[in-house]
């Protein structure tokens, strides 16, 4: 059996073992996949030990994605741009490779599964943390009209706008820059909802056909989703599809097979409810 794992801290609520087990069954790949909590100072040692012991691949989640990028000897171009890695593997020569599949996962869920357009759209991203860093390059590849990033800490948004501005029109600011502006696609990447406080967005920023996507997911609609519905969004989604799509892309990186994602999304909905 091939051995895989996800490293994070905390890790208790990780759905990755369930998702990869479902993919493995579909594709007839014999593997085991575990969720392992790694102590904060122990990441590098744990990764090395895992591969030395014959492990085939690792997913990396909060708070280790940047450290994983620093540890990998070879990064895919999208991981190098993001300076964040969620997928690791060693090649036959023992070289550690890193990739990031979060952004592709988001774009595939929006464009292929939900049928939303990104091309030509005025995009608003709320939040400027690690998640946004992983998402921006695949997003810019879809050729949006523009991307505006707002964040509580304006400086983090500005840094992202500077770094990713080479790929297209990316601007940044505080929440006050939303006054009198409209967007066609709004993505919530702020973890504020986790603490039960929604991002404070002014009413009237959603254009007539605006789609709203929350990177968070839960059994019940999130605060941001409820805000979007209340403000007459055209379409609203949580991030469960992205979670499954990023896992599918990691599965493809490791096994060169593309599993069906929708049955697994349905299965997860059942587990969440
Ligand atoms: P992730 O990997 O999910 O992106 P992160 O890097 O910790 O996690 O980023 C969390 C995001 O949520 C940030 O944009 C953060 O804003 P700051 O950069 O100003 O910290 C945002 N966030 C978290 N709690 C928030 C709150 N109570 N109000 C507004 N924004 C919040």
Task: Kindly describe this structure.
The chain is an alpha/beta fold. 38% of the residues lie in helices and 22% in strands. It is built from 10 helices and 12 strands. Helix 5 packs across helix 9. The longest helix is centred in the last third of the chain and has 16 residues. The two termini are 32 Å apart. The chain binds 2'-monophosphoadenosine-5'-diphosphate. 2'-monophosphoadenosine-5'-diphosphate binds next to helix 6. Involved in the biosynthesis of the chorismate, which leads to the biosynthesis of aromatic amino acids. Catalyzes the reversible NADPH linked reduction of 3-dehydroshikimate (DHSA) to yield shikimate (SA).
Dominant shape = globular
Order of helices and strands: EHEHEHEHEEHEHEHEEEHEHH
- DSSP strand count: 12
Q: Number of helical segments? A: 10
Structural class: alpha/beta
The fraction of residues in strands falls at 15-25%
What about the largest sheet?
6 strands, mixed
Subunit structure: Homodimer.
Domain SDH C-terminal: 239-269
Keywords: Amino-acid biosynthesis, Aromatic amino acid biosynthesis, NADP, Oxidoreductase
Domain Shikimate dehydrogenase substrate binding N-terminal: 6-88
């Amino acid at each position: 059996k091939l051995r895989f794992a996800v490293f994070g801290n905390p890790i208790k609520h990780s759905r990755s073992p369930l998702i990869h087990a479902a993919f493995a069954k579909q594709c007839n790949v014999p593997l085991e996949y575990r969720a392992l909590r790694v102590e904060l100072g122990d990441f590098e040692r744990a990764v090395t030990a895992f591969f030395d012991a014959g492990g085939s691949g690792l997913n990396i989640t909060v708070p280790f994605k940047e450290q994983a990028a620093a540890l990998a000897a070879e990064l895919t171009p999208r991981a190098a741009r993001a300076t964040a890695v969620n997928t690791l593997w060693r090649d036959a020569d023992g070289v550690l490779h890193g990739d990031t599949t979060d952004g592709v996962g988001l774009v595939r869920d929006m464009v292929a599964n939900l049928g939303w357009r990104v091309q030509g759209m005025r995009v608003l991203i709320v939040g400027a943390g690690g998640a946004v860093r992983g998402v921006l390059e695949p997003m810019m590849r879809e050729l949006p009209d523009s991307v505006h990033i707002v964040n509580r800490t304006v400086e983090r948004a500005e840094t992202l706008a500077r770094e990713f501005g080479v790929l297209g029109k990316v601007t940044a600011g505080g929440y006050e820059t939303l006054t009198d502006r409209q967007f066609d696609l709004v993505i919530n990447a702020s973890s504020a909802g986790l603490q039960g406080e929604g991002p404070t967005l002014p009413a009237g920023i959603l254009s007539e056909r605006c789609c709203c996507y929350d990177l968070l997911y839960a059994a019940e609609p999130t605060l941001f989703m409820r805000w979007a519905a209340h403000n007459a969004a055209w379409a609203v989604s949580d991030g469960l599809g992205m979670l499954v799509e990023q896992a599918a892309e990691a599965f493809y990186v490791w096994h060169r097979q593309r599993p069906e994602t929708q049955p697994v999304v349905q299965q997860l909905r059942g587990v969440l409810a």
